[in-house]
Specification:
The chain has about 300 residues and is of the alpha/beta class. The chain folds into three domains: about 60 residues, no CATH class; about 60 residues, no CATH class; about 170 residues, FAD/NAD(P)-binding domain (3-Layer(bba) Sandwich), CATH 3.50.50. Helix content is about 25%, strand content about 25%. It has a five-stranded parallel sheet with strand order 7-17-8-9-13, covered by helices on one side. The protein has a four-stranded mixed sheet with strand order 6-14-15-16, with no helix packed on it. Strands 1-2-3 form a three-stranded antiparallel sheet, with no helix packed on it. Helix 3 runs antiparallel to helix 4. The radius of gyration is 22 Å and the shape is globular.
């Protein structure tokens, strides 16, 4: 919509319903053109030549495509509502555990424990705080401390300066280690920030926050202890420590939501296949798939036959 954000910069983000409405609008604009067909709830064969409806109809469509656009480079192994068997840790039978998507439909718990970091963990903690849960009733269990990106530096008017500084930090002769690079970026007006100012982060997932959100997150108890091994009725167990809980605790599983990047694959894998992924400095700084996809689309449109040169 042609409107101005009166709240300023990135203080507010779209809700789930707003996102769904936007994507539906975009999809309809493509299908109405007559050039695009949408096959909902379908499973593609390994070679992409057939589509099978995943519900009771089991209808099959045979597909021929001149060029396939695939996003298999970023892998997130846990679905929105994972089966217990899909989790990488033990869960006792009487434990109350849900995923972030389930939160609007549950309530009435004494305490909440968010399992896992990354953007899903960040957003889950913020959702709880914004929906009236006291910070003292929220525990946050993460494998390790992570660097966060201050979204205020990712606006169109500030992004060029941000990218310039990131590039200079990555190529500076003074920064001989990854940690040195991250510390150098942190000095740039707080472009990178920490949940706990006293702890040096050892991970980066591209999670982003505003300054106000960072201050909110710092109210919550954070516990690190390495890999999560089990969620029992009275504790959350990690390799390097346990966190005591009780039967009234609701656990929110955010452990499978950080992007799992596969080995590097050429974007233009062949004359008939495009592998979408985050590119170059975009990948290193903000993990911005939208801008990367736009760049790939431009290259494919201006010279569709020159796929080897694009790589």
């Amino acid at each position: 919509e042609n409107t101005t954000d009166s709240d300023g910069h990135v203080e507010n983000r779209a809700s789930r319903d707003e996102l769904l409405a936007y994507f539906k609008k975009v999809l309809l604009s493509m299908t109405d053109s007559g050039r695009v067909r949408f096959f909902p709830k379908c499973i593609a064969s390994s070679d992409g030549t057939t589509l099978t409806h995943s519900l009771n109809s089991k209808k099959v469509w045979h597909v021929h495509a001149e060029r396939k656009v695939v996003f298999s480079f970023g892998k997130s192994p846990v679905p929105a509502r994972p089966l217990k068997a899909a989790r990488a840790f033990q869960v006792s039978d009487n434990v109350h555990i849900v995923t972030p998507n389930d939160l609007p439909d549950v309530g009435g718990h004494d305490n909440y424990v968010v399992l896992g970091g990354g953007q899903a963990g960040v957003d889950t903690v913020l959702w709880l705080l914004h929906n009236g849960v006291d910070a003292g009733c929220i525990g946050w269990v993460v494998r390790e401390h992570e660097w966060l990106v201050n979204r205020g530096h990712l606006e169109p008017d500030t992004l060029p300066a941000t990218m310039t500084h990131v590039y200079e930090a990555m190529t500076s002769a003074k920064c001989r280690t990854v940690q040195g690079v991250m510390l150098n970026i942190e000095k740039f007006q707080g472009l990178l920030c920490r949940l706990d100012p006293t702890q040096l982060p050892t991970a980066y997932f591209g999670s982003s926050v505003t300054t106000a959100e960072l201050n909110e997150l710092r109210q919550v108890r954070i516990r690190t202890g390495g890999k999560l091994t089990a969620v029992l009725e009275d504790s959350v167990q990690m390799i390097d420590g346990n966190v005591a809980t009780n039967s009234g605790t609701l656990h929110i599983d955010c452990t499978g939501y950080e992007p799992k990047l596969a080995l590097t694959t050429p974007v233009f894998a062949s004359a008939r296949r495009i592998e979408l992924q985050s590119l170059g400095e975009l990948h290193m700084s903000v993990l911005h798939p939208t801008a990367s996809a736009g760049m790939v689309g431009h290259l494919e449109a201006v010279a569709p036959e020159d796929w080897e040169h694009h790589n």
